[in-house]
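Internal tracking record. Fields below are filled automatically when a chain is submitted to the structure queue. Please do not edit lines marked as system-generated. If the sequence contains nonstandard residues, flag them in the REMARKS field before resubmitting.
Queue: standard
Priority: normal
Entity type: single polypeptide chain
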Amino acid sequence: MSIFGDFFKKEAPLLGLQGSGGGLGFLAGRGGGRYAEWYDNLDPFNDGSQVGYWKMEGPTPQNEHTGTNVTTLYGTPSYSNIGDSQYYNNPETSTLSVGPRPYEAYPISFSIWCYKPTGDWTSGDANQLLVNWTMNSSQRLSICCVDWTGNGQWEWGIMYGGTNHWTFAPSSRPENQWMHMVYSLTGNNDAGHRLYQNGGSALSATNQGGGHGGSAGAMIGGNATSSEDWNGWIYNVRLFNKALSQSEANQLFVNDKPFGA
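SYSTEM-GENERATED OUTPUT FOLLOWS
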C-alpha cells in the first residue's frame, strides 16, 4: 500500500483574519481562564519531563522552553479563528520547522491537540503527519494519521524508520471539535507503545509490517519533502522525555484544553 499521495492544498477558511495579529486574540481570552495555569506550565508533572512545548498560535509560534521560533518550511500556514475560541491555529496546509530538536531518544511522548473540519477525514494525503521527527540522530519517526487500507477508515499511526508501521483504531473520528492525542513510545518498534485519545484507555494496535522510509527532521504538520500534510489544525504540541501513562494523558486532556473547547 502506498502512503505517499499528492500534495494536497485547500482554501483556508477565514484566511483574512491572519493579518489581525493572532496573539492578541488568544491573550484576550486567557487571563484567569480555566486552563491558564496549564497553558503556561513548562513542567506540568513537576518532574522535569517536559522538554519541548510549541504553542501553535499567532504569526510566530515558538518553543516555549527556549524561545526558538517555528518557521514555515513548505506551504502557507493558516491563522483562522475556530468557533468562538479567540485564538489562531497553525498549520492547516503547511509544514513547519521547529528548529533544533530538544530531545531525540526513547522513551519519548508527544501530546498533541488537533482538529478536523467538515470533510477532512475523507480528503488529503493518505498519510498525514502531525509530527515528523528524528530519533537517535538519523531514524525517521512519523507521528501520523493514516488511511492504511485506502477505504476511508482513518487510523492513528506510529512509523518507525527502518522497521514497522503500526496503526491504532481511533475511539472516534469527530469533525469540528478538538481531539487530544498522546503518543507514548517506550522504545524503537516496541509493542509497549501506547496511544491515548481524549484521555481514554489505550487504543488497539496493529503491526502493519514493512519498513518506514523517507527523510527525518523536526517538523509539525508535514514532512521534509513538502507532502503528507496534516489536513486540519494543530493547537499545541508538548514533548516529554518519558513514556506517559494513561493517567498523565488524562490530566493533559482535562487541564490543557484549547480555550473555548
